[in-house]
Please model this.
Amino acid sequence: MAKNEECCSTQLIDGDGAFNATGIEQFIKEVRLGECGLSYAVVSIMGPQSSGKSTLLNHLFGTNFREMDAFKGRSQTTKGIWLARCAGIEPCTLVMDLEGTDGRERGEDDTAFEKQSALFALAVSDIVLINMWCHDIGREQAANKPLLKTVFQVMMRLFSPRKTTLMFVIRDKTRTPLENLEPVLREDIQKIWDAVPKPEAHKETPLSEFFNVEVVALSSYEEKEEQFKEQVANLRQRFFHSIAPGGLAGDRRGVVPASGFSFSAQQIWKVIKENKDLDLPAHKVMVATVRCEEIAKEKFANFSANEEWRQIEDSVQSSPVSGFGKKLSSTLNACLLEYDEEAIYFDEGVRSAKRKQLEEKLLQLVQPAYQSMLGHIRSGALEKFKEAFDKALNAGEGFSSAARTCTQSYMALFDEGCADAVIEQANWDSSKVRDKLRRDIDTHVASVRAVKLSELTSSFEAKLNEALSGPVEALLDGANSETWPAIRKLLQRETESAVAGLSSALAGFEMDEQTRDKTLTSLENYARGVVEAKAKEEAGRVLIRMKDRFSMLFSHDSDSMPRVWTGKEDIRGITKTARSASLKLLSVMVAIRLDDEVDNIESTLSSALMDTKSNAAVTERSITTYDPLASSAWDEIPSSRTLITPVQCKSLWRQFKTETEYSVTQAISAQEANKRNNNWLPPPWAIVALIVLGFNEFMTLLRNPLYLGFIFVAFLLVKALWVQLDISGEFSNGALPGLISLSTKLLPTVMNLIKRLAEEGQIPATNVPQRNPALAAKTYRNGNGTTSDMSTASSGWKRVLDSGNENSVDLFSFEIDSWLLVQSSVGNFHISLADTSPTSASQYFISTDGVLNARARVLGGGSSINAGFYTRASTRFIKKVGWDENLVNESYPWIEKQIVHRPKVAPWQVALRNSLLDVGVSPFNGFTYDHIYGTKFGGTIFDQFGRRHTAAELLASGNPQKLTVLIHATVQKVLFDTSGLADNPMNAIFVPSKRPVQQSLIQTVGITKLGVYIEASSGFGQSKESIHCHHGIMSAEIGQLSTIPPKQRTPEAIQAYIKRKKDLPHEAFKGGFILEKLANPISTGQLSLINTNVNDNPSVTFNYFNHQKDLQRCVSGIRMATKIVQSEYFTNVTQCDNQTVEKILNMSVMSNVNLIPKQPNDTKSLEQFCKDTVITIWHYHGGCHVGKVVTPDYKVIGVQRLRIVDGSTFDESPGTNPQATVLMMGRYMGLKILRDRLGKEDGV
Model:
């Protein structure tokens, strides 16, 4: 490509007809043709070879085409077609210099390129210059005629809508004036036009329809150069503003925009080369199509890379974009405007079509973002609707009203959001998204409606369940003739109340009448179902209920006091009454009677099961007599309402009689035994005979008083022997066994009595004061539960020593001490713990943690003051401490045979058992001493009469001659482990009761896998002695159940309370406790001596719940305990409504069971509750650990002939209660010591 400062040129088509696409693209960029739009013109020149075409163009347009060098000869200068831009002419004008015609280089036959180039020039150019010699005008064989024929012939192949300007440039003009030359030239042109073959459509078309003919003349360049240049300069002026209307290129129809010139020229040349007809209008459309597509692609790519669009696209994926519609519409509009600016000059139809396609593609590109935006608007409106809807419902607005208001509000909000997201260029419909939002709202409303209705229904069902279950169970428990009428009345009342409440609540839902009635009917059916389910449940326990009722009526009198079978009771009548009551209960439980229908089931059962005489008579008359219970259905009751069939009633009654027969037999035996014991006086006639016959002897005694003294001494001796030999007890099992037993015991007893009297006569009286008379046990209970004086067991002892004074021995007495009688009773077990007097059997202390505690200071140790529960250690513990399992299994039964009893389980303990099983502490292991996971009844050291049997009674099994018992013993040197002391923390939950609860200590235990034990006690402090005794600051009522606030608990207030307490009825102290004890605590503490006085307590710290795991286990245990308290079994026993957890815990916190300051969140945080209400169950251990203080054989390290055999050697408390293991441990170590000394070969 040639280039100078003002002009540049390039070869467009080479001599071989190859189109220079690269060159023209570079040329167009160089001259910035694309910016011209339609404001450009194309000029081409045709003419004979060497006619000065290039010279003319160079002078006319300032181009730099190659010119012929005349000095070198005349030859072809321009090959093919060259293109250049005119210099200094506006608008932009392109000039094409065509290869000359008639050139010898191509020859006569090669006219194809001439025609092709001529056609190309006519198709592309606005102005065609035809260069011709002046002397050829008017000549038939002039050189210009073939050229004109070629031009006109090719013109027939063009279908161009516009006129092309043919400017004939007459070169080397002679003197002939132009006015004379021009007509001749035009005549020749017309002749040529007429001679050219034309299509049928253009046969009559004049030349002027296709061409604007212009004629100019120029002087000879070689001869008149200056004149030539002047004429060329004048001609040049005509090319300025040539595209203006009336200008040389004023017809702009079909003009290809400048940006499409390169492509258009290339396609035109391609069509010409293929020798096809050139349809310029179609070509224009094709060029417009291609170029508009290119422009559209470019603008689409630019839009896709647009930073603002990319930012909107990214942002809308995660959240809504503010002003989305306006921003995107603006960006799209800018893109389309750019397209319009570049494609404005192309064919309007094509341009518009391509613009529409571009717009569609752009909208397709942005549509996902628009949909995302709508999605955000929809989801945002939905979420806001949900929040507003919930808020409206929580504020108490009616459901339907709230739904309607919120729906309208947030559908309008959605419409506003959609309006903001609208894209101006798109006509997208958001109705589908709107419909989806409406469906989502409707779905949410429906789901909330279902949930609310379900909650509402469930709430009323729960209220019905609470209102019906407990009372129905209580009514069935106290079954009588009015039970089912009362249940029907209760059901009707509660159902009507619930239905009325539900009906009122449903008003806000605007339900249709049918649905509303269906809902209310469902609630009524539910209420009936609750009663029926409870009736079926109770029917499953009817045998237990019957036995409980029988036991209550048979074993207790009308005042609910236990019967004592003295021989005056009518056992037959009592049995019949109790069985009748049990049968009444059975008749009530036979069927569901919620309808006012009368049946004769009770009379049928009574006649079939209770009327034994008539049954016997019927049996005697005929064995084929009809049995009313030999059926699987009742005549009056349908199977759907039958709970117990007649056959099942018969079977249950048979089982009931079998299981209650034992109680009747025992009562009869007790009466007979009582009669035998009380039948020691002679018959009345014998007494009268003695008085009559012994009158003289009686008078003799009166005359001689010495006889009376002798008789009195003899009476004392006989009375002593009577007591020592326990004659009444020996004869309680029969006369012969009693005589045999007395014969073996008489002589040793008499000898011991004489020996003791002799010893007491030899020992001088001392003035040593007795430190604590109560510390020595005055009586003990033998295995049969009778009371005997301790001297029986102690009269043969070698010495009973007070280590403070070895001469003080008179520590036993025949006098029955009232203190021991009171404190050895199960009903007053707590009195010794509450007693803080110097003579108390327990010494209370307060650990530095603020927990009240106690230690025993009486013969028998803890077994004399504890709750009496007896249960063995686990096998794991036995293996851990390294004991001989066989010897352990021998030692436990030895203890159990002498002082352990099977408890008579109280209702409170039964309720605990049932509740434990209900919360999953299973299985039920029945009565057992063994430590087994699940729920069980354990043993007790209280007998069936409530009397305590302590470890002191085990002394009676030893050889009195070889026993030495030390009391008030002191030591000179103390060795103990100051660390590792531990106590099993316990937390108690108080359970109130509306009625008095039977006294019970620990009988039932739940051994859980959570690391906690669940136990219970009840009827605390209801006995006469409890209420009317002075217990001081440690009183159970003051310390645990006081109504006196802690800050007001002054000594004066306490004394006033004690005085008032004497006037309180027994019922003032009702209810009981659920106890949660931590097994094997990880937290440990320490102890230290305050002084050397053995009577003063050491400083003890247990660090309860110092370890987080202990606290976590306590929380788990409290959760389980609260579930137990809330169970139906306890609400049935206490007749109290089910309490909330917070209320239950609050009652326990207010009991002030310790001196730990209470926190405001005690009832909110179970962790804080555990810490603030911790108490002890007296199972502390440690202080004398094996390996630190004692050896594995329990010998004190560094001390000769001293062992410690008690719980202080344990590093964990064995089983649920250490008492059994500590008692067994004494027997175990005694046997082990003997075996080690004597050897197993001696049979020890």
In short: The longest strand covers residues 164-171. The chain has 39 helices and 26 strands.
